[in-house]
Amino acid sequence: MKKIIHTALTLFCLAPFAAGAQDSAMETGERIYLARCEYCHGEGPQKGGTMMLHRRYGESKPAVLHQRIDLLPEYIRNVVRTNTPGMTPVRITEVNEEELDALIAFLTRNNPD
Amino acid sequence: MTIPPGLTQSQFDNALGEFREAVGSDWVFTIDEHIAMYKDYFSPLLNTDLQPIPSAAVAPNSVEEVQQVLRIANDYKIPLWTISTGKNYGYGGPDARVSGSVIVDLKRMNRILELNEDHAYALVEPGVSHYDLWLEIRRRGYRLWTDGPSPAYASIIGNTMERGAGYGLLGERAAAQCGMEVVLANGDVVRTGMGANSNSETWQQYKHGFGPSIDGMFFQSNFGIVTKMGIWLIPEPPAFRSAEVYVENHEDVIPLIDVMRPLRHANVIANSATASLNFGGYVEGGQGPGGGIAAPPGTPPPGPPGWRARLGFYGYDRVVETNWEEVQDAYASAIPGVSFHSDKYSAPYNPDTMLTESKLAAGIPSFQESPLWNHAGTFVSMVMNFSGETYWDFMQTYDAIYQENGLRYMGGPLHMHTPRSMMTLAGVPLSPSDPEMNQGRIAMVEQLIQASAEKGWSEYRTPLVFMDHAMESFDFNNHALKRFNETIKDTLDPNGILSPGKNGIWPQRLREEQA
Q: Given an 8 Å threshold on Cβ–Cβ distance, is B368 in contact with A94?
């Protein structure tokens, strides 16, 4: 997974910011993740969200968001749209409802059935 | 549901209908769940009924839609409050000053209209963040550097108009601005500087225009809505050294600043340098060894006591090395025990291999500060002499007031982003769950602003709740500056619809109500 995301990030940096309209929900979700979440929640130093989740969960859960397999859709929606410690609401003008649905599809893709 | 002051529910319903027609019904927000996203969760007024609640938010996507929103607001005399991305955290976030205001959210206007490598500038809309621009420069492979605040989700236009600070070569953000497009309250669209020539080829290259420079009027004001801004970028330097100067003793902060001053004036230190306490030698929540400085909660891991300055050196390799050697010599001859650390980089730069501190000085977006927003607090941001003695006086003055309020002064960072002055950031802790204590802290900040004014120190920027206090401290000739601002406000915006109260500028209608 680490490799896939790293490749995706590299591609993203080379590919247009706004990808084509034919994106699947998963692709849209990944694109939104990379543009709006990864800078805080991705791998590597200087990622505020990752640092904070590491402090909160220690080794019991991955601190990097896209490695989680336990995030539930309603939980993601709630964290994105409301004020939570360390993260202010992401407004509809930043990530619209359709994009949020796609983001949820991306972040829950590896959840066990 | 909150409604704008002076309107009936049915008038407001009609206005909302017109807003929906203007920007599309998906982009007018009125339900509580949506309004809650336009709240400043760091406000000193949080969890009190003093915090203004917006009546709605509208999100235009074009200059024409902005004009429509202004027309409707004028017709109904609705106070608006404009935000670019609403991330001005610590200074008000998306909050308005008047309850019932309609928030004008410009985030959808997020286009990078031009990115010019040869002339090193960008022309952007208000919704473009520092991070967005940095990504786009990288995507195109342009050899340009940008600069900006951390966290980097802030709007370039919003942060620049607030005169924010970066950390690199373009750290004085207001000085990197070149050419604006502004929609005035009456819907007229003005381009500043050379942009007033419809065919101009130097709108983003020559700042001054012909006749008065009016760009400055739109910084930290409520005279118009800025819809485009030129922002200068800088050619990637062939070499870059990110450097730190450490001094051991508390009093060493005085020569740390004084040695820096002429080097900063002469552009030997060309970046937006900073200085801050090393918290390692200080006791969390208690008194420090050197002079009563207490480390704030959440203190970083122990390190050496004393202070550190962060500097950057840029340009041709030999120039970088020579300048850094000269700076080390200057410090070594002035401060016993001074030590240095630095990291050298050369083009092509790979952000993945750069240290956090180096990235900031290279204008590479950082989000490391994001979790710090977990704690509540407010800022006092004073501009003062670039002088060690002044800073020492500042710390003593502030510590006395902090002690009167049961606290010790918390040493915030010093920013030398303007080469001839110094800005100090003092933090005042708040608790979201203790509005009563927060009221005490508000009074304490007002005390700090007053004491500062008497010393000749003035705020460069302030949270909403202190804007009137800060403006009052600019008192020369019976507040001539404030009266001048009001004259302009009443002329350009006779209905007082644009961000009433921004930086202590109130329209006539609301001044009369307050009187």
A: no
- Cα(B375)–Cα(B356) distance, integer angstroms: 22
Return d(Cα B221, Cα B216) in angstroms, integer. Answer: 9
Position B470 scores a pLDDT of 96
> Which residue would you say has higher pLDDT here, A48 or B226?
B226
Which of the following is catalytic: B97, B408, B441, B461? Answer: B461
User: Which of B38, B136, B369 lies nearest to residue A17, judging by beta carbons?
Assistant: B136
B89 lies within 8 A of chain A by CB = yes
B460 is catalytic: yes
> Where along chain A do its domains lie?
2-107
With beta carbons less than 8 A apart as the criterion, state whether B300 and B279 touch: yes
Superfamily of domain B239-370, CATH level 4: FAD-linked oxidases, C-terminal domain (3.40.462.10)
How do B56-58 and B102-105 pair as beta strands?
parallel
The ipTM is: 0.90
Predicted confidence at residue B250, as pLDDT, reads 83
> Alpha-carbon distance B35 to B329, whole Å?
56
Domain B9-105: assigned CATH number: 3.30.43.10
- Is B246 annotated in the active site? no
Judged by CB atoms closer than 8 Å, whether chains meet at B138 and A44 is answered as no
Query: In which band, very low, low, confident or very high, does the pLDDT at B469 lie, cut at 50, 70 and 90?
Result: very high
* Residues with Cβ within 8 Å of residue B224, at least 6 apart in sequence: B182, B183, B184, B185, B190, B218, B492, B498
For residue B290, pLDDT beyond 70: no
Residue B349 annotated among the catalytic residues of the structure: no
**Other Cβ atoms within 10 Å of B501 Cβ, number:** 23
Residue B149: pLDDT above 70? yes
pLDDT digits 0-9 by tens, A6-35: 444 443 433 334 444 556 889 999 999 999
Of 3.40.50.2300, 3.10.180.10, 3.30.1490.20, 3.30.465.10, the CATH number of B112-235 is 3.30.465.10
**B270 three-state secondary structure:** coil
Residue B102 CB contacts under 8 Å (≥ 6 apart), including other chains? B4, B19, B54, B55, B56, B57, B58, B73, B78, B79, B80, B81
Give the confidence band of B368 by pLDDT, cuts at 50, 70, 90.
Answer: low
Closest residue of A to B357, CA-based?
A: A46
User: H helices of B79-150, where?
Assistant: 130-140
Q: Which of B38, B76, B89, B91 is catalytic?
A: B91
Q: What DSSP state is assigned to residue B92?
A: T
Whole-Å CA distances, B187 to B74, B129, B179: 10, 25, 19
**Do the Cβ atoms of B391 and B257 come closer than 8 Å?**
yes
Asked if the Cβ–Cβ distance from A17 to B356 is below 8 Å, we say no
List strands edge to edge, sheet with B121-124: B112-116, B121-124, B225-232, B177-183, B189-191
Question: Which superfamily, per CATH, for B376-464?
Answer: FAD-linked oxidases, C-terminal domain (3.40.462.10)
